[in-house]
Amino acid sequence: MPIRSLLYVPASNARALEKSRSLSCDGVIIDLEDAVAPQAKAAARAALPAALEGGAGRNRLRLVRINALSSPWGQDDLVALGGLGCDGVAVPKVSGPADLDAVAARCDLPLWAMIETARGVLSAPAICGHPRLAGVIMGTNDLARELGARPRADRMPLWTALQGVLLAARAAGVPAIDGVCNALDEPERFAAECVQGRDMGFDGKSLIHPAQIAAANAAFAPSADEIDLARRRIAGFEAAQAAGQGVAVVDGEIVEALHVETARKTLALAERIAAEVDA
Ligand SMILES: CC(C)(COP(=O)(O)OP(=O)(O)OC[C@H]1O[C@@H](n2cnc3c(N)ncnc32)[C@H](O)[C@@H]1OP(=O)(O)O)[C@@H](O)C(=O)NCCC(=O)NCCSC(=O)C[C@H](O)C(=O)O
Ligand SMILES: [Mg+2]
């Protein structure tokens, strides 16, 4: 399943919940945590059944972000998830596998760990190796706050953390979703951040507004040029093999079996997007 775009939708916002059904994001994170004020927590939780009824619509992945179990609301959030048709629970501020154990003991849903603390980043290999983990989502707002980092368009203060978590996710074979971009009125900055996340290797980006969906979907999908190159690399390598050679040269660059594996993954992702999302 492609997860190019994962949109936070506050569970306290009925209009946004309704609108999210028709949006072209690959998934939603229905939020009970930071997007919901303390006085609205109970009403937001009560809105979950209606928000999740009627199937996924265009959103292929539907996660619910609970409050931390140590907060006054987390336990009730988990109880409310029982029997609801969501695809997983996003666990905030995971600092180590014990935080996931605590949720796993009370809930059968796949777990998505939000990594947004310094301890979480340093424990990423253990978190990503948790047997119930389905994926990780970067929480770059909380992480920047804890680090004392200044906001920068190039996100330099966060590179080590982003790449460290990505390494851990890849070693464990789970998807990794980049953090949000708060700059709602700077589409060029947002597009550049998407490209940066894709260049690092992230599978997709978490979003805060519908206006961010199209750019994320474009950045995390193979481009026409990438698809064309992948096809030509596969064809070139197969021709080289037929001629008894182990490597090919395409566009002046060497192509070995490992490059063909990447090319096949590129084509497979493009086909899944065409078949499952854009169909
Ligand atoms: C930021 C917002 C409060 C802006 O909302 P609004 O003023 O309604 O924006 P617009 O008028 O431009 O909205 C246009 C239409 O789009 C709908 N809309 C807006 N946002 C969403 C959304 N998130 N999901 C679905 N639909 C949305 C509006 O209803 C309008 O619809 P229509 O009536 O048909 O015109 C708002 O965007 C918002 O609340 N965003 C989410 C904020 C959030 O979730 N924050 C917490 C997560 S981010 C985070 O902290 C990650 C991590 O934990 C970390 O630490 O980094
Ligand atoms: Mg956060």
Automatic annotation (TrEMBL):
Enzyme class, broadest EC rank: hydrolase
SUPFAM superfamilies to which the protein is assigned, alphabetical: Phosphoenolpyruvate/pyruvate domain (SSF51621)
Domain HpcH/HpaI aldolase/citrate lyase, first and last residues per copy: 4-210
This enzyme's EC code(s): 3.1.2.-
Entry keyword set: Hydrolase, Magnesium, Metal-binding
Hydrolase found in the keyword field: yes
Pfam assignment, any one: HpcH_HpaI
One GO process term, biological-process aspect: oxaloacetate metabolic process
Cofactor: Mg(2+)
Gene Ontology terms, MF aspect: hydrolase activity; magnesium ion binding
Ligand binding (Mg(2+)): 116, 142
Binding annotation for substrate: 65, 116
InterPro entries the record matches: Aldolase/citrate-lyase_domain, Citrate_lyase_beta/mcl1/mcl2, Pyrv/PenolPyrv_kinase-like_dom, Pyrv_kinase-like_dom_sf
Family note: Belongs to the HpcH/HpaI aldolase family.
UniProt name for this protein: (3S)-malyl-CoA thioesterase
Species of provenance: Limimaricola soesokkakensis
Encoding gene per record: mcl2
